[in-house]
Write a structure and sequence with these properties.
This protein is mainly alpha-helical. The chain contains 7 helices and 2 strands. It holds the Pfam family FIT.
């Protein structure tokens, strides 16, 4: 915090009208208008007002998209089987390679299922709808910056 200032989420919250509501009499301080979340907790205050983008939606959606891109190249499993059929070497190598490849795909699907369940629970219990949309928008933004120049020759 000493170098860059408040975290991005705190800046968004404060710039959209959010404040730390704390008891002046208990803390004997009225100098803090724009405090971050850490300082607000130290003052035993609570955040009120403002727009709090959902960081959970951001992280869960963005990491899920990255793993889905890993699964897009699932044809490598078929190529591995084809290579194993043509390979005149050890049959045991082929079986191990196929087991590792198929196991990693199963683990990837299990992780994605867990993350989407966590996203569902987060969406039901936390944040307002606009805050969830903001988290979703910012999770798609880096992917768009990655895909658009590569596939549209910009």
């Amino acid at each position: 915090m000493w170098f860059f200032g408040l975290p991005i989420m705190d800046r968004i919250f404060i710039n959209t009208g959010g404040i730390c509501d704390y008891d002046d009499i208990v803390n004997n301080q009225s100098l803090f208008n724009d405090v971050g979340s850490k300082a607000c907790r130290k003052l035993q205050g609570i955040w009120t007002g403002g727009h709090d983008p959902s960081g959970h939606v951001f992280l869960l959606v963005q990491s899920s998209i990255i793993l889905w891109f890993e699964l897009l190249d699932i044809r490598t499993l078929a190529e591995l089987k084809k290579f194993g059929d043509n390979y005149q070497g050890k049959r045991q190598w082929k079986e191990r390679a196929l087991l590792i490849a198929s196991s990693s795909i199963i683990v990837l699907f299990a992780l994605l299922t867990l993350w989407w369940f966590m996203l569902l629970i987060t969406s039901i219990h936390f944040h307002s709808f606009p805050e969830k949309l903001t988290g979703l928008f910012f999770s798609y933004l880096p992917i768009l910056f990655y895909l658009v120049p590569r596939y549209f020759n910009l």
